[in-house]
Protein 1
Amino acid sequence: MAKADLILLHAPSNYDFRERAIMYGPISDVIPSTPVFEMYPIGLVSIGAYLERNGVPTRIINIANRMLKDPKFDVERFIRKLSASAFGIDLHWLPHAHGSLELARIVKSLHPSTPVIMGGLSASYFYRELITYPQVDFIVRGDSTEAPMLQLMQRIKAGAAVDDIPNLSWKDEGGQDHHNALTWAPTSLDEMPLDYAYPVRSVLKYRDLSGITPFGNWMRYPITCALTCRGCTYDCVTCGGSQYAYKNSFGREKPAYRSPQLVVNDIASIQRYLYGPVFIIGDIRQQGGDYADEFLWAINRAKVRVPIVLELFAPAGSDFFRRINKAIPNYNIQWSPDSTDEEVRRAFGKGYSNAEIESTIQSALNNGCKRFDLFYMIGLPKQTYSSVMQSAAYLRGLLKEFGQDRRLMPFISPLAPFVDPGSKAFENPEKYGYRLSYRTLEEHRQVLQSPSWKYMLNYETEWMSRDEIVMSTYDVAMAFNNLKMENGLISPEVAAGVEARARGAIDLIKTIDRIVVEYGADSEEMMSLKQKADDLSTSSICQKKELHWPSASFMRNAPRIFWAFATGSAFKYGS
């Protein structure tokens, strides 16, 4: 097997998920991964491809997915056998605070002389605290770490000084921490290799398919993504990827975009290997109309046939959807208005009206949209239990108007488990009506060991307590569930299963509350609930398959992959 200079490891959210009874609840019901958050960030792919292109062999190993798939998988035994010049571990999303640090501790205990590098948005935000952990040697900060990572790996291999590498936090031989200036924030993403040939090649090079698999169900549902930008032009108050957060915490004054033609090249690369949905990260209108026009022209010319999912950040008109329909034969839309209450939506940072939302839906459905997903949230400024439940009343009218052809699919989920570090609400909670219980990385690391998602929530609001956030989540989810069944969006069997799990989850949360008081969170009585907690931590507010766009399984895509290798296209780097 080939040897890697850098091994990138992805940890589960909670390293002890196989041993502890934790009722994660619905925190991952509307994303592809499980509550273990085994889906690694796309940045690992771009880092790996960039370093490989520049002569640094790099391997991705999804430890979380291996642990999830094999209850007997021995992490320590596996890591002991690895050999590399450095190990990298992502701490991108804060729910990985426990797993990433524990995995880093294990790596350092087994390979004490090998540097451990961490990175990601959460690592970048908490860098001053994170570098004090003994298992962490380096932190590469910011949203675009490919070039600094290459410099760091070259210096590590040469035994050279690192004091001039931008964005780097590091420890000297005496254990003293240093923080180089956060100056590397490229204004374009055109030099970033996001070609999916890299992971395909890695499977053969390191003879490891399970290690690079993006998330647990990916073999049956091989969804991929293409990146249009890093940064954002919007300022949702709880978002750690907002314009405010990028400017104040990650050194980015304005978004960096990938050229439309290169994004389409990335999609074409995916299409060589897989016939599955490709999610386009970022609204293609963010940089302006010219960018969207160029993207649609290029994707039409490339004759892309895989299902394409486009994000909306704001309302759109019929002309926009006509152009999409002409360019993309199979397109879907995803939009997160976040609340059906216009006052709540404005307080969250989005100023458009329900009428504009309805007009956008109508325009898309009239112009060939195969499916339109709407996402709403619980736990927002000015949102009360009553306004959450009013979402169901609004949805009834919305489905009556648009639900007949079954292309409109609504979802609702809690803002959980955390308000994002770096967001406006995290930095100024009182201003936006939030009360934060945990502020440090260590506090978040510890709370991820809590017995239920209610205790993990790092916030309450002026308008809703933790208990109200939790109970309203299940109550409104059951209302949404019934309305989707009534309108033929899901079968009666699926609806019955979701409702049974939601009611079971409510009962289990009450049982956990009682055991915490009477016996303690680490008691045998709590451990006796493990199987039930695991069973009720998925599909309790919607059936996970409701999220799926049309796709062929990985095995049905095997001929495409074999053809790519036979013709040599799998060995060509993207632009």
Note: The longest strand covers residues 331-338.
Protein 2
Amino acid sequence: MFVTIGLEIHLKLNSKAKIFCQCKNEQNFDSEANQHICPVCTGQPGALPLLNKEVVEKTIIFGRALNARVNEVSSFDRKNYFYPDLPMGFQITQFYHPIITKGQLSYFINDYEEEKTVGISEAHLECDTAKMIHSEGKSLIDFDRAGTPLLEIVTDPDFTSAEEAVEYAREIQRIAKWNNLGDADLEKGQMRVDVNISIRKTLDDPLGTRVELKNINTFSAMKRAIEGEYQRQKELLEGWGRVDQETRRWVDAEGTSFSMRSKESAIDYRYFPEPDMPVLDITPFMKGGSEWNEQGDPEILRPFDWIKQCKEEFWFHKEYINALLLDKQLFEFFFAKVDEGFDPKTVAKWMVGPMKWALDYVQGDEISLRKNVAEEAKKLKSSPEELLAQKTTFLQQCDGLEDFLERFSSLFDGFLKIEQAKKLVDNQLKIVFEEVLQSGSSAAEIVKAKGFDAPVMEGAALVNIVKEVLEINPAIVAEYKGGKEGVLGFFVGQVMKRTWGKVNPQEVADELRNQLK
């Protein structure tokens, strides 16, 4: 059986005001209900909509990010249906002439090993509904969400697996975040995904009957929903049953779906042109238009392009890319260092390795931070709380990721220059980098304080120090010769202390084994 998938993504744009009124476009609906409402967004008689210019600007940026056609002329329509969360009795949307058409988006699958491109049929603007709250046998309505701007992005049926669909949705989320178009948090309802699925026995067969799945609010749930619906349709066809065209609601906790409505009983929306909205002419917003901004067209950030550069120019593996993708600011910080002339792999190595716990701290990722510190504290046989307090002296002065990266930038430059000089061994570099993150002192100051700038130790001197360490620890020497080879690490540590970490640990281990024969 072969699966065909198409997606409809509803993206909440993060404009300051709602799409057709001046009410605040609230991003957090956990606050007190019905605080940002007016006659327009609550559908009062005689209240007329007025299109928000910022919403149009963000939509144009998104259209360009999708390599789509941004139509200079489009229009709005009424989608008529009755439901309590729709105060006007209709939704203002774009049915006949959407603002964006004929786009395409490239993205990666299979751990960035394979590129895919999906067609974008259209993306249109519409206003969101209010929020229904069902509790204790009562239904309440919060109108704060009513009238907030949505951009619905509709793909061609180009996906052939759950992975392809999920990775495309992730790329849409990154585009929204990186270009400051929307927060795109699925769990908060700022990005909602509807999946259309059909299956057929062979690729030569016509497309099968399409089923739409709703209520998907995480990427992992999206994958499970696609796989679950594929299995349901497969079992129907293999049992000589029939797949009905319908809309189903996915219940992730139960791993199943149920029918909401069929095509035969679907509501007739009776679309017709919105009489209170003039035709939308975006000519003034196009290149060179005086209403855009003084600097000209804004820069469009496409995460795919950055990932591609990391793969093709720097040969990065998936761990490096995944770590940098956590935040746009990390990618920008990385490329800023590369533009300064530092080696890309060296920059990435320190950013996604030893620097990770600091990023967890300033980003408020308590789970990753505690896990990281607990593992390190166990190795050092110390208290996680004491270790965390010691590590965050400098970080406590930083107000979030942006402030940290700004404060740390020149410190990182100084460290990278020392690393680039190749005068310190890896063990020393780790000690210096850790100290820079903890104290905010410069790498040069730490090198001097630790004595790492002392002359490189000659081979004969190392032999003598190893001999001294073994002579003052006869009991542990006996343990090693008795078969307890794990104590070799103790000896290595003692020698490294006496040499200020100025020698390669592997050379120390080799000399220890030689003298312990």
Note: Residues 357 and 372 are 7 Å apart (CA to CA).
Protein 3
Amino acid sequence: MAVTAPQQRPAAGRRKRFFPGTANFLFLLGALLPPAVPAQTNQWAGSTSCRECHGKFYQLWSTSFHGLAMQPYTPQLAKTKLTAQKTEITAGKFSFRAELAAGRVIERNNTNETRYPITQVMGGKNVYYFLTPLERGWLQVLPVAYDVRRQEWFDTTASAMRHFGNRGDEALYWKERPLTFNTSCFSCHVSQLAKNYDAATDSYHTAWAEPGINCETCHGPSAGHVKLFHDLPTNQTAPADIQLIVTTTMTTEQRNDMCGPCHAKMSPVTMNFAPGERYFDHFDLIAYENPDFYPDGRDLGENYTFTSWRLSGCAQSGRLDCIHCHTSSGRYKFKEPATANDACLPCHEDKVKNAAPHTHHKPGSPGSECISCHMPTTEFARMRRSDHSMRPPTPATTLAYQSPNACNLCHADQTAAWADRQVRAWHTNDFQKPVLERAALIDAARKGDWKKLPDILAFLAATNRDELFSVSLVRLLGNCPADDKWPALRRLTEDASPLVRAAAADSLGGRLDEPNIAALAKATGDDFRLVRVRAANALASVPEASLPEADRQHAGKARAELTDSLLARPDDMSAHYNLGNFFMARSQMPEAVTEFEASMRLQPEFLQSYVNAAVAYNSLGQNDKAEASLRRALQLDPTNSATLLNLGMLLGELGKSAEAEQMFRDAFKADPQSAQAAYNLGVLRSKTAAAESLTWCRRAAELQPDNPQYGYTYAFFLHRDGRLDEAIRAIRAVRKRHPEHEDSARLEQALMQEQEHIKAAQK
């Protein structure tokens, strides 16, 4: 019986993209654009129009961090808010000094000096960042910033270094795109902005109505409202419709969602969020799959509070919204020590009125305040953030994962073990146990340790599980090769949380079999836009005729929503990259190349664009461009396993076997868990080194037993090496795990027939 000889396996990213098309890049692009109101009143009047009738509120707003989220640089601001920079700050090959009197930053190297005027200032609560105009209308964040609390200057980009274990982390050069105001910062620092981006020249003609977050950002265009009350006769009652968005008539969820776009680490789905609309119709949300969080969900990086807020039991109750504790201008309402714990009224009246037995601290001390234990403050990139999850201290997670805990933030002279003993002595119910269990699942999934897969699936099947931990595990399961995950993911497309449903739809795109396609097709008709576009993206490679007829119309509309979402951000690298992946999945390779090339122009250091562009070039027969693109990616990161793997495959295709072999060896060295690199080395070495070939094939099969091709290949080469009994044992192991694999069935039958012939001949 004839059996199929193993072939070099396409590297990840060649037949199927390696890098996920729904990558959630951490550019904060939640645009607060005009809310939807009737055309006749859809005019902006500006915040000064509010002052006549709302003088007190205007004064509170205009001096708040919302009102001053951005402001022009002036000598008065420099004199009252800043101190002189004492020493130059060195970053890379340059040194920088801010000259406050002249309103500029000087950049120097060995040969040149360049002066950049300071025109705008952002922030002021923790840090002042400074903006300067560059060519083509770019407004760029300058490389030096000012720490308000410490009254010192620092390197802007170096402050944001993550230091994730053994991962390389390098500060950006200050003129790179992520530090361009027009691209990345605009939505949360000015109001009624028109970006006016010209893709042909990569230039901006950006304008905005007011710096800072103004009244109309939350209340909508106010010209009709102003006119209504100016024209209203004295003593006449105002009509029910005052032609303004009134936040007091909103639901709790609407008020929280209104704050979310600026206070979340997220990725945008649309660019037209209006107050009163639903967050997940316009944005996705980053969760604990991201290394900016510790495995237990505490902040490691700059996370803007909305993720941790959704973890809070207080928020989940549906009774607490942001303006319970904060004024509309962003001020905290309970700063005075005498009323500090009133923030937790009325829900926790018993603990507020008798705090000492609960806090185990003396009344009036900082430790007796609710927020000291439940909302501890941490710092990253000179920015201080309160933990809005409101969970109690869990020093056990500090011991396990080095995440911060409130006890040791105050008692810095004590150890986490000491704090853990204190907590366990005070609370006998071991509330830390479920936190540790959830964190262990996140930690294992991040590391690709799927021994805990049964526990992960059990967690996802539970009815009382948390939304944020659920969505994190669903996203991390995208890298899990086990088939057991698919039924669980399909069930989660019916979850109560649109965030979980969207993540499940995204992950189901990893295997487009009939059950997954049916679940995704149904998800394209979901009530939330986020779910619809994630499902549409996952179905990108599936012809419309293959979808259930009842869902085709929904799928078409969802696909249009997805492309509209990506096309709405022509200056965003991630939009072009994701759109390129979408076109590639649909075999529209010329369009994919166009988008990948656009993403390269916008962010030349983003390696994935070069790898995926190479796949598209190869499909078009442009292997010279494919090789050049992969070699450029290799220059960016010589140890990137995916680049090495793809380049090895391309070189093998071009007949450059020796070079291809070296690439596969380097790929496996860079990632010792790469079954693909081992497999391709096994196939390549089979022609000249049978023993080494078998070693690599066995390793591939051991690393990824859920891929029947690897075990099949190992058995095939064992047979070719004359080791029939070992080959039979190997192929039977594959058949037991993958009874549907046709090549393995044919090989097993052939081997068994050969064994029978041998026995007969011997007899």
Note: The chain has a mean pLDDT of 91.
